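Posting for a labmate who doesn't have an account.
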Amino acid sequence: MTSMYRKANALYAPALVLFVGLVVYPFVDGIRLAFTNWNGYSQDYEYIGVRNLERLIVDENVRTAFWNTLLYGFGSTLLQQVIGLGCAVLLDKPFRGRTVARTILYLPVLVSAVIMAYMWSYLFEYEGALNDVVKLVGKEPVLWLSSGNLAVTVLIVVNTLQYMGVSMVIYMAGLQSIPGVYHEAAALDGATRWQLFRHVTVPLLYPAFVTSVTVNLIGGLKLFDIIRALTNGGPGYKTHSLSTLIYASYFESQLAGFASAVGLLLFVTVLVCALAVQAMFRRAEVTLS
C-alpha cells in the first residue's frame, strides 16, 4: 500500500516542477529584484535596499495607477454583476432566438481583448462614430480617450462589456440549478414577481454570486490589454493601472527593479481585495443562514 501511495505521489512531480519553475521561482526572484535598480538587460545588479518601495509611497504616478486599479476592479465588477444577472434572468426564460442571443452576448469573451479594444476605439476616438452622433445633434466632439476621468470611465465600460458574458453564464447556471418548487410554493403564498426574485431567487444564487464577483474582481484588478490598446495609459499617466505601469517601467523606462516593486504592490492589492471580499461573503453567508 505504501508503495502504491509513493507511485501515486510521484505522478505529481512534473506538475510540481512546473509550478515551482514557472510560478514560485519567478515570484521569489521578483521580490529580490524589487530591491535593485536593474535595468532589465545588463548582468549587473546594484542592491539599493528599500528605495523602490519608498518610491511607491511618494510617486504620484504610482498613486494614480493604484486608485485606477481599484476603480477598474470594483467598478467593472459591480457593472458586470448587474448587467450579467439581468441578462441571465431574461435569457433563462424560453423564447425564440434565445440560443442566438446567448451566443451574441457571450461572444466578446471569446474574442481577444486587444481586438475588441481596437474595435471600440473606432467608436470612442475623436473622429469616431460616437462623436459623429454628437456632431449630428449640434454638440462639440468629446475627447473620450484624451480626458483622464472620462477615459477611465470608458475603460471601465469597455472592460464590463468585454467580460460581462462570464457573469451571465455563471448566473444562468445558478438559475437553472434552482428547483422550481421554491418559486411555486412562494407563488401559492401570494408572492409577486419582485418578491420571488428578491426573497427566493437572489438568496439561492448566493454561490453563483460569490464565484462571479471573485472572478470578475481579480480580472478587473489585473486589467492590462484593454488599457494598452485604447489609451496606452494616457493622457500622461492618468489611465494607467498597476499592470500597465509595470510594463511601462520595465520596457519603456528600463526600470526593472522599480517594475518589480510595482508588481509586489499589485500582488498585495489583489490578495488583500480578494481576502476582504471573501471575508465579506462569509459574514453574509452566516447572516443568510
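Reply:
Got it, the C-alpha cells are right above this. The chain is about 75% helix and 0% strand.
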